[in-house]
Design a protein that fits this description.
The protein is α+β, with helices and mostly antiparallel strands and 216 residues long. It is built from six helices and nine strands; from the N terminus they run βαββββααββαββαα. The longest helix has 15 residues. The termini are far apart.
Length: 216
């Protein structure tokens, strides 16, 4: 199961490793989060974000939990520091901290902060794909199943919302049958589309053109 605060942002307090009552009890002791909480089914797959403006999908990306990739020369700590600077430049509000979760993941991967990471070897640093914690975004706008447009049309009509994001978990972004709806985000940030790898989007311009253009 997944446990997270009912109110919050940037992935703070989210735990994806709730296997039973004992984990739930430990979370209550260690999280330092005020309730209430949401307990949800864990669904495996890629974290897929669809950005909708004016009833249309204008950008889509896969978000991957924070990681660094070795170059055969730098230590893990040096790689993290380099990535931390990149995260800060993209959005000063985002942080890549070496917290307890990061330390546990590093230990699981049998490396240390002073280890030189071999070229192209990936070291995962976070459990969840939240941009506020240094996740990376990979653009997939042209690869998603086109049938998802119908979902968006219905949701946009029902909500009468000109701007929102749809967060999904997908086993195969080209097959809508693998999509599981995670949440609607009415106040979604778009900066990860601004810096997404593979392709970027000037969503500020799209918002202005779509939502503030003169009515003819």
């Amino acid at each position: 199961m997944v446990l997270k605060p009912a109110v919050g942002t940037n992935g703070v307090g989210v735990d994806t490793k709730i296997f039973g009552a004992e984990d739930f009890r430990k979370y209550g002791i260690s999280s330092n989060q005020a309730g209430p909480f949401l307990l949800e089914e864990f669904v495996g797959g890629d974290d897929l974000r669809l950005q909708i403006i004016g009833g249309k999908i204008v950008a889509a990306c896969i978000r991957e939990p924070a990681f660094v990739k070795g170059d055969g020369e730098s230590t893990l700590l040096e790689l993290i520091e380099q990535r931390r600077k990149e995260v800060h430049v993209q959005n000063p509000a985002n942080r890549l901290d070496i917290d307890e979760q990061t330390q546990a993941l590093i230990k699981e991967q049998e490396v240390r902060l002073d280890s030189v990471i071999e070229k192209n070897i990936k070291v995962r640093l976070k459990e969840i794909a939240n941009m506020g914690q240094g996740a990376r975004a990979f653009d997939v706008t042209d690869k998603i199943d086109p049938m998802v447009k119908k979902w968006v049309e219905v949701i946009s009509t029902e909500l009468q919302a000109p701007y929102f994001a749809l967060d999904l978990i997908s086993g195969d972004i080209s097959n809508i049958e693998t999509y599981k709806a995670l949440e609607l985000n009415i106040r979604a940030e778009w900066m990860h589309h601004t810096f997404s790898e593979g392709r970027t989007h000037d969503l500020a311009k799209v918002v202005i053109d779509e939502l503030f253009s003169p009515i003819e």
